[in-house]
Amino acid sequence: MALSLFHSRKTVFALFALLLGCVLHASAQGNYEIQVYGSDTVLPKTTMVELHSNYTARGSLFTTDGTYPTNHQEHETLEITQGLTSWSEVGFYVFSSIQDGHGIQWVGDHIRPRVRVPDSWHWPVGVSLSTEVGYQRPVYSPDTWTWELRPIVDKSIGRWYLAFNPALERTWHGPDIRQGLGFSPGFKVGYDFTREISGGLEYYADYGRIGSFDSFRNQQQQVFAVTDLNVSPKWEINLGVGVGSTSATDHLIVKGILGRRFDWRRPSPVE
Questions:
Q1: Bridge partners of residue 240, in order along the sequence
Q2: Residue 8 in this model has a pLDDT that exceeds 50
Q3: Which of 23, 70, 126, 173 has the fewest CB atoms found within 10 Å of its own CB?
Q4: Average pLDDT for 239-245
Q5: What is the C-alpha radius of gyration for the chain, rounded to an integer number of angstroms?
Q6: How many C-beta atoms lie closer than 10 Å to residue 65's C-beta?
């Protein structure tokens, strides 16, 4: 048993190290997937299908760096996550955009493997690490190939829930390729009003490059008031309204996440 536990920890640490190394070769995809991650991973033989929807009610009005303005853009993102082991998963995203004058367009795809600290380690907080790589079309992002490394730490304290995602980002192909690592933290604080209804705040930011943060007006900072509806273990429902506090940020966004878990495990035989 002790030897098995040692090998299990060694394997998880090796994967954590691999993901950390990826950032040396690793920008945000924009407002396509507005979510602060929790540390849990999808169980093995289980698939999570999520639809991330958001609408920019007040955004940019002019073409910038060859990209479309965001005002009145609707984003629909399909996310499919497959559980691999009790401590790992892999997710795949398909981004799309709907806007007057441009119709429905494919934006790009990302893939995201993730590992977490197993429950058997009894850490005082939940910890996981994801890395995300993918492509966005130039009319939606001048940085077409990007890499993100996202540490995830969360904790439940009574009815309160806290989650912190200090994400690091790097461009692989595009004008920001020589800019180094960017810092884009996300934070969530939630409170369970009942067993079915939670409410709270989510904070998202892009401060710019580590060692040379952008001026405040050029940073992206958003705060969302959100509600989570815990109607069933099979379903995930998140609704929110967000406002931007800087001139570089979309000023008003409405978002929603609808997710469904599918369990492919065989039920235990009845004795």
A1: 226, 255
A2: no
A3: 173
A4: 95
A5: 19
A6: 10
